[in-house]
Amino acid sequence: MVNVELVNDPLKAQQLAQLLAEVWGERNSISVDVIVAVVHSGGYASLATRDLTGKREVVGGSLALVGRHDNKLHSHVTGVKGDIRNSGVGSALKEHQWTWAKENNFAAISWTFDPLVRRNAYFNLVTLGAKVVSYHRDFYGELDDAINSGDSTDRLVVERQVANCDVAPHGEVVVGDDGDVLIETPQDIVALRQSNSSADQALVHNLRSTQRKNFEAAFAAAKFVRGFTSDGAYVLSSKVR
Asked: What is the pTM of this model?
């Protein structure tokens, strides 16, 4: 069973910093003092633990900042240990975060994710029912960590509604209709990035370039992301249907 608790002292902040360093390869971590400062200034930080090998271990965590615009909480980072992904830890963290945002009267929670990562797109749009707000080229600039290194940091910004919701939103897979634009995702872009093959690296570049062109063209044509298909494609529809 996954337990999620707030980070409310330096020891837990240290545990969160260590978890994030492990997930992102210890090259682009968030320091303990920054985590403490975020919490002290009204932000959100949490740790997920569960029983592994007979003892309680930290398996995930999240850090969110208070946004200046429209009373929104911005979830900067959420990480789960790689060997236990798809085990419910990410969902438990996001549900805890939503409940905290509800209790603290936030209107919505926003965050970014790499639109090439299929599993994250499914999780965000289908499991959590988040809505795409915008697309950005190279949002963070160059990052030198174990997940993003060697690729541009194009990002989708999504929001999960909090205000006027009695329970946390959830979505469902959608099917494209006539006139919709489908933008596909590779099965595992992270594995391709980590490959030593020059052919795989060229493929990563081509996938990013193609998806960027498709998203920018669709948004320029007044399309919006209506959802995500069961086989890994974004469905973009006209704003007036």
From this structure: 0.93
